[in-house]
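I'm stuck. Protein, please.
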Amino acid sequence: MKKILVTGAAGFIGFHLVKRLLETGHDVYGIDNLNAYYDVRLKLDRLRQLGIDVQEENFLRQKEVGSNTHSHFKFLQLDLTDEHRLDVLFEKEQFDVVANLAAQAGVRYSIDNPKVYVQSNVVGFINILEACRQNNIKHLVYASSSSVYGNRDEVPFSENDRVDHPVSLYAATKKSNELMAHVYSHLYGLPTTGLRFFTVYGPWGRPDMAPFLFTKALFEGKPIKVFNNGDLRRDFTYIDDIIQGVTGIIDKEVSQSDYRVFNIGNNNPEKLMDFIKFIQESSGKEAKLDFLPMQAGDVFQTYADIDQLQQYSGYKPQTSLKEGLQQFVHWYKEYYKVS
């Protein structure tokens, strides 16, 4: 079994990855800055699910978050921009693998808050690369994004496509991560694998994403904002399928200087209006629709070509959008105690 650092461990994908790694017997160390981009209580509740006895009053005072009740999981509140504390952690713990999922997420938020993205996604990532290089990490797996493809007409999106024209700063930071990782693989022999996530959703999901926003609006009787008048397509990928793909990469043996980038999606773009229909069916409620033009920084469609990842690790998504949304709505109703 491996000793694995998961950054962004209180985030949506990070939480599910930690949970799966613990279930399969790995020793896991999680870090997260627990920023207030969305409701911190959701992040703290994820940590509670992982066995961290969260003391909210200490978090609010910027002290240690809480004690650890899981023998194979440790957690530390830490920002990737804190280079000194990050270096001390790496030197002390001597990880085998790093799964870097920490990032400032969200395309639309990057339009109004660009400097936050540079600090978290660029400065934070170079600190991770340096810590990996200095401590002989055997494999760095990191989150990229389907956003790097920009507004492409040709589908499906392939890793062989040129991705030189991002339409948001968030996408630009993710492309920069791939370039920086390539340099560290080439110059220093650090094995790196970037994963371009395609619209991940499921229980414990992010409140700024469509499944959460639409479900919340339905139960509150508020209109759903439908951009581009509903003419959008997304390659929605259920969280369990994503985690199966990430752990498949972590379990692979890699060689020095290996550099790879993979799409990780569902290989099945869905129409936004079908997505809304499934949410209505799962919630038993009828949506009020507010049709709007395309938002700045958004793209018309995403569609993942996953052939390369399938050939490399056997990745094969199993969950239909209808089934996945049923699972999400069920979680939402239980977590927020709505009927």
About this structure: The first strand starts at residue 3 and ends at 7. Residues 3-199+238-266+303-318 form a domain with the Rossmann fold fold (CATH 3.40.50.720). DSSP finds twelve helices and 15 strands in the chain.
